[in-house]
Design goal:
By secondary structure, the protein is mainly α. It has 2 domains: about 55 residues; about 90 residues, no CATH class. It contains 6 helices and 5 strands, in the order βαββββααααα. The strands form 2 sheets. A 3-stranded antiparallel sheet has the order 1-3-2. A two-stranded antiparallel sheet has the order 4-5. Strand 2 and strand 3 form a beta hairpin. Helix 4 packs antiparallel against helix 6. The protein is globular, with a radius of gyration of 17 Å.
């Protein structure tokens, strides 16, 4: 996932999305409903509610797709980038699990922050120091590929994974 959440647009049917299993939250007192990533409708490599997906999902094309459509990048090169990004995300998930964070319902960025806070409170030891160092590098590498290949509008320090 390249976003932490998806903000619903006025034309989205929040009640219908909730009935499809989306746990909606509001950002702030007056914010529109949103749902966290990973998306509950994502099933492997496809969307279970594609015909009824939120407007933002309909409208968004990642930079990688745009580059393929404009013939600036070949399909095989794009597939290699996707494979690399998936491997990087899998490595982050694996390291988070190794460090005790097994909640797959939250975005990787949220899990990383929570893991960091927990480890900073409890202190690092022989068991956690090396995996945490690997996790920090893995998150950085994942964020770099997302920023460079998928979503350059998310600059340094922005919310990604």
């Amino acid at each position: 996932m390249i976003f932490g959440d998806v903000q619903l647009q006025p034309e989205d049917d929040a009640v219908r999305l909730q009935s499809l299993g989306f746990p909606l939250t509001k950002s702030g007192n007056r914010g529109s409903p949103k749902f966290l990533q990973p998306c509950v409708a994502h099933d492997g490599c496809q969307c279970r509610i594609y015909a009824e997906r939120p407007k933002y999902c309909c409208d968004f094309d990642c930079l990688l797709l745009k580059n393929v459509q404009a013939s600036r990048l070949g399909i095989q090169a794009a597939r290699r980038i996707i494979t690399d990004a998936r491997k990087r995300a899998d490595q982050v998930r694996s390291l988070l699990r190794q460090l005790g964070d097994t909640d797959e319902t939250l975005p990787l960025a949220s899990r990383f922050r929570r893991c960091t806070q927990r480890l900073e409170r409890s202190g690092f030891d022989e068991v956690t120091a090396d995996p945490y160092a690997e996790l920090t590098v893995a998150i950085h590498r994942l964020n770099r590929i997302i920023a460079e290949a998928f979503y350059p509008g998310c600059g340094a320090g922005g919310e990604r994974v």
